[in-house]
Design brief:
single chain, about 600 residues, alpha+beta, 3 domains, eleven-stranded mixed sheet, six-stranded antiparallel sheet, 16 helices, globular
Length: about 600
């Protein structure tokens, strides 16, 4: 049988899709199942996954701390890496949702809503499949559960409990939800989609994770899901969403930089062969024992023995303990990156990191004097640790209701190691810091006061955005830097040759909020990266000053003014004055989902 294949890059899988996502494929919407159900066991198991490991000890330590288990990162294999034809699929997907609407004009009853029970099921009225498409609506809860709309229950709404049907008459009379009616052809009970929204949201969650269900053994390929199994009782309420809504699923990712401290030859060997090195720790890295390993290459053994000869065992033991002895949280790793980037008084060069002397850009009235460091070489590792679903809450729902993150990791066979999908990127960037603290505002600055109040009350406010950043993200200094970062990304995209979607950011503050910086970079497994476009902005005399002036000018004016400029920060909002015309960037560019932005905080009003 020929398969309808849809290709996806490794970065798309991590940043946009992954387990639990609904992808609009050439054969309709498909649900991406968990890794162990998606990748065929015929060519991927606990042994072969090691061939696709991405080595980064800092990220592994962080994942282990977050999940209290041994964790590693791997890249989803490609057809080429598995010696498969481009027409062969290597990752299965599920049919979801299974309810279809047939829009054939041959129906006497109008459009028909029906439920597929087999892969080749056709419309019960016209006996064809060509005019059918998946229904647009599904339901979800904040604990990450996902399910179909219970159309039989929604249509009858307690009026005729004895009536049961797998097809309904579907009539669209306009563009609003209330204009779409659904009628039972048997008992003539009738409802509309607006009422379906209201009916479903009062019902208890079904506690279903369709991405974790096994495919049916008897179904044809592509696989169909088994009868849903509920994993526990959920006390949340499910909400109706359109299947393409952003709130239906958001990836939770972690990105860490490879910094010089972890990028010397000895550290790289320890990271690659930690399971080989570990038994030799108690033997004080005896050179003769190291030589007996059949996994270490002759070059690696030579480097280790030379290090032992020159420095004794102390350097190896010190590097080993430094790499594995960390109990830091995520922000500690970010602080570590900021210290490494901002302490570059002299150029640094390693295999995965290269930074040169900065240029100075004088203040322009809104921004103090800046130091721009060209980062000619940079390596990042990004892992998808999980995903969340954020359907809109009821007015009576407490503001501090937590959003549950569902893990994207998987264990293969009896091995307890949890593997997370990720990708490695190499490219270039610009690190921007300041000669003095940038946050020089008068005490009567209203924007600063509003954000400071939000930061002071962060423990009781609604948990939105990336939870790893919530300890710093609402601080006025962070908002100031984040807003400036977006302004620079939009200005750089018009001058560097990179699209704004290919540029990413990392905003840094120190522990005392006395200083901070911005890293704007492009690292990609694909072709849009590391071509010198960003570094070239620094090397051309006066160009970056022109770019900065253009960025500030765009901050002063917005095409949505005065509506945008009149927006003020208040506790129920994640932003102040910010919109798609002036500050928002691509979702893949912003590490904070376009939250914690405010034009007023740059302008100082």
């Amino acid at each position: 049988m020929s398969h309808k294949i849809q290709h996806m890059t490794e970065s798309q899988y991590v940043l946009t899709y992954g387990p639990g996502a609904i992808i609009e494929s050439v054969s309709g919407p498909r649900l991406i199942p968990s890794i162990i159900h998606g990748i065929s066991n015929d060519f991927f198991d606990s042994n072969t996954v090691k061939n696709f490991e991405i080595t980064d000890i800092r990220l592994e330590n962080l994942l282990k701390i977050l999940n209290f288990n041994k964790a590693k990162v791997f890249v989803i294999p490609s057809n080429a890496s598995l010696n498969k034809s481009t027409n062969d699929y290597i990752y299965k997907t599920y049919i979801f949702p299974v309810w279809r609407v047939c829009y054939s004009r041959s129906h006497d009853v109008g459009d028909v809503l029906y439920r597929m029970k087999k892969v080749k099921d056709v419309c019960p009225e016209c006996k064809k499949k060509d005019n059918s498409s998946a229904v647009r609506f599904v339901r979800a809860c904040t604990d990450g559960h996902l399910d179909e709309i219970p159309w039989n229950t929604a249509v009858h709404n307690g009026k005729n409990k004895n009536c049961s049907s797998d097809k309904f008459n579907w009539k669209s009379g306009g563009s609003s939800l209330s204009d779409i009616s659904v009628e039972c052809p048997v008992c003539k009970c009738k409802t509309d989609i607006q009422q379906v929204y209201n009916t479903v949201k009062t019902g208890k969650c079904t506690a279903r994770f369709p991405e974790k269900e096994l495919p049916s053994d008897t179904a044809e390929d592509p696989p169909y899901m088994t009868t849903p199994e509920r994993d526990y009782n959920c006390d949340k309420k499910m909400k109706v969403l359109q299947r393409q809504a952003i709130a239906l699923r958001s990836s939770v990712t972690i990105t860490l930089l490879t910094i010089p401290e972890y990028d010397d030859p000895i550290s790289n060997i320890i990271q690659r062969y930690i399971d080989v090195i570990d038994p030799y720790v108690n033997a004080n890295f005896n050179g003769n024992i190291i030589n007996q390993s059949n996994r270490l290459s002759p070059e690696d053994i030579l480097i280790i023995n030379e290090c032992i000869r020159i420095n004794g065992n102390e350097k190896l033991l010190r590097n080993y303990k430094h790499l594995l002895g960390s109990n830091n949280n995520f922000m500690d790793f970010v602080y570590e990156e900021f210290e490494s980037l901002s302490s570059t008084s002299v150029p640094q060069r390693t295999d995965n990191f290269s930074i040169s002397k900065p240029i100075c850009v004088d203040e322009n009235g809104y921004i103090p004097s800046m130091l721009i460091y060209p980062v000619e070489k940079i390596r990042t590792v990004t892992a998808q640790v999980g995903y969340s679903r954020t359907p809109p809450s009821d007015p009576n729902t407490p503001e501090n209701t937590d959003i549950h993150t569902v893990s994207s990791g998987a264990s293969f066979g009896e091995d307890t190691t949890v593997w997370y999908p990720g990708f490695e990127g190499k490219g270039e960037g610009l690190f921007i810091t300041f000669e003095k603290t940038p946050f020089i505002f008068s005490s009567d600055n209203e924007s600063k006061k509003a954000w400071q109040s939000e930061y002071d009350n962060r423990s009781t406010s609604k948990s939105s955005g990336n939870p790893l950043w919530l300890d710093v993200a609402k601080h006025p200094l962070f908002v100031w830097l984040h807003t400036l970062s977006h302004l620079l990304i939009r200005a750089l995209s018009r001058n560097s040759g990179y699209s704004s979607a290919s540029l990413r950011e990392r905003v840094y503050v120190n522990q005392t909020f006395e200083s901070g910086g911005i890293l704007i970079y492009t690292t990609s497994p694909g072709g849009d990266g590391s071509m010198g476009g960003l570094v070239g902005m620094v090397n051309q005399n006066g160009l970056f000053r022109t770019i900065m002036n253009a960025a500030i000018e765009n901050n002063i004016f917005c095409s949505n003014d005065p509506l945008c400029s009149e927006t003020k920060k208040y506790p129920a909002k994640n932003n102040g004055a910010a919109c798609y015309s002036c500050l928002f960037t691509s979702e893949t560019s912003c590490e904070h989902r376009n939250m914690w932005l405010d034009r007023h905080i740059i302008l100082g009003d």
